[in-house]
Specification:
By secondary structure, this protein is α+β, with helices and mostly antiparallel strands. Among the domains are: about 140 residues, Probable tRNA modification gtpase trme, domain 1 (Gyrase A, domain 2); about 80 residues, Elongation Factor Tu (Ef-tu), domain 3 (Beta Barrel). Helices cover about 20% and strands about 30% of the residues. The chain has a 6-stranded mixed β-sheet, with helices on both faces. The protein is globular and about 65 Å long. The structure holds (6S)-5,6,7,8-tetrahydrofolate.
Length: about 375
């Protein structure tokens, strides 16, 4: 699996930035939402991690596709698809939100952008929400148009993000608040730009409207990078695990509910809000989740990539599984995200990790984001 070579056709869509990341030495791609996502560059994951924590990077996250809802029933459909309460949401707000089915199984965990009272973008993780939304709209006879927008997110991440963005768009970008968006302008075209992104190092996401505009936006940012040690980057597995950022399909699937994913704060559970899966989710909330996503720090030399769940053992019995893992150069230990049974999910619990290289390593359950070993 690790060395598998994927054959590419038109079904694995390129982004407007693909030619740029290729010119900058991208070393490989993953496929998310049928769209290619850079997974690394010439530097190692560790070097990329330190660079992201100290400087600024441009990420081709065009795979974060936008499912657009617009029309009289757009807000109704948006609310049906998530337990997050959207009633008080403001135009200009981004909302991280679980999407669930009638059994409260996780379908996705998008960032929702409220563009207008009757217009939303669901910036989705790797599952086909366009089909779910279209099916609901048709089946329920809703007055809403559901499309995949021709919008290609580009992320600017790292502590020098504000400095880079200010050079291109002016000082006002510094005033954009976390999980809010503004409309910036470049060469006469508008770009919805949020302070957000799939790292904990700060930064922005530019929702570039129009494939034809993408390379121009990338180049404007790239050319403004003098003296900032700007480089191309991508979501970093070490930083993501330490930061407790979940990845749909890795940490959770439809077999998980949002409570066990630690997303309770994004769930309205008082029964006053009508969304798909509400009764099922309330039943789960009443008895409490059976397991929970936690951090895990474990011993031994650098672990292999986690390509299937690794059993977490306590006294010879499986009590959970690792979903993502990697060596942390900061902690000088392996770090992981893991799903663990309720009786054992307290911080400090000792476990044994059965890695897919056949080795067993001792570890301890930790808080998220991780503070240290
Ligand atoms: N940005 C955008 N779309 C995305 C992602 C993204 N779609 C797919 C995937 N990433 C969705 N997953 C996440 C997970 C966590 C966060 C964002 C997207 C995140 N969470 C913050 C937190 O957990 O503290 C803030 C949540 C909040 O306050 O609402 O940033 O990265 N466009």
């Amino acid at each position: 699996m690790a060395q598998m070579k994927l054959q590419v056709s038109r079904r694995q869509r390129a982004t407007p930035y693909t030619s740029r990341v290729e010119a900058l030495g991208v070393s490989g791609f993953s496929v998310v939402n049928h769209t290619i996502l850079p997974k690394g560059f010439e530097r190692s994951v560790e070097e990329d991690y330190w660079h992201l924590k100290n400087h600024v990077q441009l990420w081709d996250v065009g795979c974060q596709r936008q499912v657009e809802l617009r029309g009289a029933d757009a807000a109704r459909l948006a609310q049906l698809m998530t337990p997050r309460d959207l009633r008080q949401a403001e135009i200009g707000q981004c909302l991280y939100a679980p999407m669930i089915d009638a059994d409260a199984g996780m379908l996705n965990d998008p960032v929702i952008l409220k563009l207008a009272e009757d217009r939303f973008w669901f910036s989705i993780a790797d599952a086909d929400m366009l089909l779910w939304a279209k099916g609901l709209a048709l089946g329920m006879g809703l007055d809403v148009t559901v499309d995949e927008a021709d919008v290609w997110p580009l992320a600017v991440q790292g502590p020098r993000s504000d400095d880079l963005m200010a050079r291109v768009f002016g000082e006002s970008v510094r005033a954009i608040r976390f999980f809010r968006f503004d409309r910036l302008e470049l060469n006469g075209r508008e770009i919805v730009t949020a302070r957000s992104g799939f790292s904990r190092q700060g930064g922005f996401e530019l929702y570039v409207d129009g494939f034809d505009f993408g390379a121009e936006v990338w180049d404007a940012l790239w050319q403004a990078g003098d003296g900032l040690e700007l480089s191309a980057g991508c979501p970093n597995l070490i930083e993501r695990i330490e930061g407790g950022l979940l990845s749909y399909g890795n940490e959770m699937t439809r077999d998980n509910n949002p409570l066990e994913c630690g997303l309770e704060r994004y769930c309205q559970l008082d029964g006053s809000l009508d969304y798909i899966g509400m009764p099922a989710l309330r039943r789960i909330a009443e008895r409490g989740p059976d397991r929970m996503i936690r951090g895990l720090i474990f011993d031994g030399d650098a672990c292999p990539a986690c390509q299937r769940p690794w059993p977490l053992m306590i006294d010879g019995t499986q009590m959970g599984y690792v979903t993502s893992a990697i060596w942390s150069p900061r902690f000088q230990r392996n770090v992981a995200l893991a799903m663990i049974e309720r009786e054992h999910w307290q911080h400090g619990t000792a476990v044994e990790v059965h890695c897919e290289d056949g080795r067993e390593r001792g570890g301890v359950i930790t808080e998220l984001p991780m503070e240290g070993p």
